[in-house]
Amino acid sequence: MMIRVLLVDDHPMVLKGLRLFMQTQEDMEVVGEASNGEEAMQKVAVHQPDVVLMDLMMPVMDGVEATRRIKASHPEVKVIVLTSFSDRDHVVPAIRAGAEGYQLKEIDADDLAMTVRAAYKGMTQLHPQAAGHLVSHVTGDSREERSTIQVLTPREREVLQLITAGKSNKEIAAELTIAEKTVKTHVSSILGKLDLQDRTQAAVFAMKQGWFE
């Protein structure tokens, strides 16, 4: 059987390269392409792929949030993160969101094909750096890291401060002059980095840490 693959990346040249690569694989076919996480969710519903190759940093909706939502509505779909980022702040949230694989864009073509086939069979393939970060997180090293606000980007700190002040996503978007969807993306990233479940936990955690007045 052919492995049906959906390609998700906001760079046209990356999509073109992946599509050409897939055409060389006798057991794989590209059933669709998307340039952001929201579009990826729509394409998954329409094309029902077996495997999604998912970029992380994209407009509208990032790869972590898209992965989380895809796995929630289509748990049978396998998601492989294909990104340029190998740090823990990207690896752990992606795996927690449900990704079956995590590879860097520098990956060898044969290794990428192996990763797609492994994911299709329900197995996990991780880049060595990603695997190391995941093991470190599981053993508890991340607990020390999350106690410092430095794990968040400057924009995420602004969003968290407004969450702590009781602002809604709409109010935060208006105050920071950004789209409400962008606020949702930041909130998802904050929860992933701090290993928390919802906005309330994030506000309580920030206050306990004494990050904001």
From TrEMBL:
It comes from the Bacteria. The modification 4-aspartylphosphate is found at residue 55. The keyword Transmembrane helix does not apply. GO terms for molecular function: DNA binding. Residues 4-120 form the Response regulatory domain. Residues 145-210 form the HTH luxR-type domain. Keywords: DNA-binding, Phosphoprotein, Transcription, Transcription regulation. It holds the Pfam family GerE. SUPFAM superfamilies: C-terminal effector domain of the bipartite response regulators, CheY-like. This is DNA-binding NarL/FixJ family response regulator. It comes from Desmospora profundinema. The lineage of its organism: Bacteria, Bacillati, Bacillota, Bacilli, Bacillales.
